[in-house]
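Figure S7 source data.
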Amino acid sequence: MSEPTKIFLPEKDAPTHWYNLNADLGALGVDVPPPLHPGTGQPVGPEDLAPLFPMELIKQEVGGERYVEIPEEVRQVYRLWRPTPLYRAHRWEKALGTPAKIFYKYEGVSPSGSHKPNTSVPQAYYNAQEGTKRITTETGAGQWGSALSFACQMFDIACKVYMVKVSFQQKPYRRALMETWGASVVPSPSDQTAAGRAILAKQPESTGSLGIAISEAVEEAAQRDDTKYALGSVLNHVLMHQTVIGQEVIRQLEMAGADWPDVLVGCTGGGSNFAGFIYPFLAEDVDGRHAKPRIVAVEPAASPSLTRGRYAYDFGDTGQMTPLMKMHTLGHDFIPAPIHAGGLRYHGMSPQVSALVEAGLVEAKSTTQMPMFDACMGFVRSEGILPAPEAGHAVWGALQEALACKESGEARTVVFNLCGHGHFDLSAYDAYLGGQLEDYEYPEAAIAESLAALPHVG
Ligand SMILES: Cc1ncc(COP(=O)(O)O)c(C=O)c1O
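Tokens for the predicted pyridoxal-5'-phosphate complex:
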């Protein structure tokens, strides 16, 4: 076989800048309405965010500079695993009998096993620069909590993680990993915050949600001078840090002599791995170098913000402490079923990705977890790599494209982001193999109920 299977970008050619989509929104015809202060209804200013985030990250959140230089200290840590490999899925293509040329970017080689350290490292770095001693955060599947624990360890900052209770119970080894990197981990809802206590008073058996865990982490950071908060997705600066992914992919496709992709596929929880993967392709379009490929976002039918949520202003958390963001939302009270893709169980979607869907630049699809695991089984049995259930949604999306090519006989180039490995998700694979996995689609009535509690804006 003459065409390569793994395409490695040398360290010396790693991206030196992040790409900031804010700079190109006008050129793309995309409008991202600003976050609003829940009290005044006015756009939030830097001073509103200052108790939670270091100033450099606030500047990045609202800044319009097209390329932001990656500090050398961050690049040094990135070099522990970046650039990540791009694979050509020769064996999966053959097993499927598809003429499609399938490539996947593999972010599972990072220390914590996903794309999340691409932003946890710069977030910890800028906090350290500005004297932060402690960072609080939430985690769903444990991927983000692990990534932040690792990054805090790199820059000597204490880390406290509120972990959604159902994941805390399902994934004891994720907790152990976070503790190995020096973090303390608390199941959420907890009795350590007013937000947690309020939920427990109403629902003592609550299995938690990302929305609740965010409230707990934000509350603690807002109350302590030595503590800031870090978010693993949704916000503009987080998405920007992930753009090392797509920049590397473009260079690796060139190295492989591949055609410009026909379609890009990624999974969406809050939108960060997806954005980091696709944004540099939008920049190519803006610069007139290459036309935008079709772009597909895949989410779980159990947490269908893009496909069934409303595009409206909503809180980022259940306790109504965050600014209001215009996004696709299922309502901040939404409690998703405990499906295995814990990292995709969020009620909202990043405002930028939501706006790209509204503008028709991105298509959104959903799948339940059985077909997603079916797709992963085919993938793992030919490619060997075990996808995280979140990343499995991208595998499912790529499979649909490969099967469409098989049907039509077209040899399209399909590229997807395999954003994490599933080594901590083997109980999910075990349930699948044991025939114990259940499909779940979020019921229409429950969506209507949580949407009824959306705040009134404007
Ligand atoms: C492996 C993995 N993929 C995807 C996600 C979803 O987040 P995002 O949409 O921000 O990439 C998570 C979140 O925890 C994750 O752990």
